[in-house]
């Protein structure tokens, strides 16, 4: 990530990284590749560009509109 646009200089202006919600057995979560934290999936995130919910990160993400290993949340 450090060699990607926004790496060492910060995430401002960086392109969103695409993430897919997965189910590790406790419900669907999204892992932020910027800060490596897990966040419970919110249905409104599917197909949207968001900022990492970790206030200390805020890295740009795009959440795939499909999920892996689970069902789409209601």
What attributes does this structure have?
74 residues, mainly beta, 5 strands, 35% strand
Give an overview of the whole structure.
The protein has 74 residues and is mainly β. Helices cover 0% and strands 35% of the residues. The protein contains no helices and five strands. A five-stranded mixed β-sheet has the order 3-2-1-5-4, with no helix packed on it. The radius of gyration is 12 Å and the shape is globular.
Strand order of the biggest β-sheet: 3-2-1-5-4
| Element-by-element helix/strand order | EEEEE
Instruction: Report, as a whole number of angstroms, the end-to-end distance.
Output: 33 Å
The gross shape turns out to be: globular
As a percent range, the share of strand residues is 35-45%
Q: How many strand elements?
A: 5
Largest sheet: 5 strands, mixed
Outline of the structure:
The protein has no helices and five strands. By secondary structure, it is an all-beta fold.
Secondary structure layout plus pairing:
Blueprint: E1 17-23, E2 28-31, E3 38-40, E4 49-51, E5 60-68
Parallel strand pairs: 1-5
Antiparallel strand pairs: 1-2, 2-3, 4-5
């Amino acid at each position: 990530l450090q060699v990607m646009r926004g790496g060492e200089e910060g995430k401002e202006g960086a392109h969103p990284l695409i993430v897919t919600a997965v189910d590790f057995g406790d419900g669907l979560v999204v892992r932020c590749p910027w800060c490596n934290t897990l966040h419970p999936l919110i249905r409104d995130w599917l197909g949207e560009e968001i900022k990492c919910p970790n206030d200390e990160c805020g890295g740009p993400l795009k959440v795939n509109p499909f999920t892996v290993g689970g069902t789409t949340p209601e």
